[in-house]
Write a structure and sequence with these properties.
Blueprint (H helix, E strand, L loop, with lengths): L2 E6 L11 H4 L4 H15 L2 E6 L3 H11 L5 E5 L8 H10 L3 E5 L21 E4 L4 H15 L1
Parallel strand pairs: 1-2, 1-3, 3-4, 4-5
Helix pairs in contact: 2-5, 3-4
Bound molecules: ligand CA2.
Length: 145
């Protein structure tokens, strides 16, 4: 069965507890529970990992090779800064979808730049927690093609 890693980066462990106007009231645990249902509906298995540490995210991407078929990645602020994450995604050659809860292009200019976009198959942003469903479905469909 197709297996997807849903990987969340820095500060996303705080979802639902702060800044609900920007990031919504849904917690990361809620999102993960929803992802499990969405993955079941899409006919795939899903695993989760969250870290506030860039190196731990790099390690998780490396460890996904040979275990998972693709990655849904909300790299948080590391999206806009991390060559290390870009290199990690490129090195494992696993299809990866860049995901953001917020529409980063409607926000501050520094959020308009993504280091990881060029090594991802696509980007979903601005749909809140529903974006994880869209990303799982898009990845499953991409893997079937
Ligand atoms: O919109 C997204 O999903 C982001 O990846 C979220 C990142 C931000 O740096 C990116 O530009 C866009 C920030 C995540 C912060 O999460 C929090 C959640 C609750 C309270 C405070 C921060």
């Amino acid at each position: 069965m197709t297996s997807i890693l849903v990987l969340n980066g820095p500060n996303l462990n705080l979802l639902g507890t702060r800044q609900p106007d920007v990031y919504g009231a849904t917690t990361l645990a809620d999102i993960e529970a929803s992802c499990s249902r969405w993955a079941k509906d899409a006919g795939c298995a899903v695993s989760f990992m969250q870290s506030n540490h860039e190196g731990a995210l790099v390690d998780a991407i490396h460890a996904a090779r040979g275990v998972h078929d693709g990655i849904v990645l909300n790299a948080g602020a590391y999206t806009h800064t991390s060559i290390a994450l870009m290199d990690a995604i490129a090195s494992v050659e696993l299809p990866t979808i860049e995901l953001h809860l917020s529409n980063v292009h409607a926000r501050e200019e520094f959020r308009h730049t993504s280091y990881i976009a060029k090594v991802c198959v696509g980007i979903i942003c601005g749909f809140g927690a529903h974006g994880y469903k869209l990303a799982i479905e898009a990845l499953v469909s991409h893997l079937k093609d």
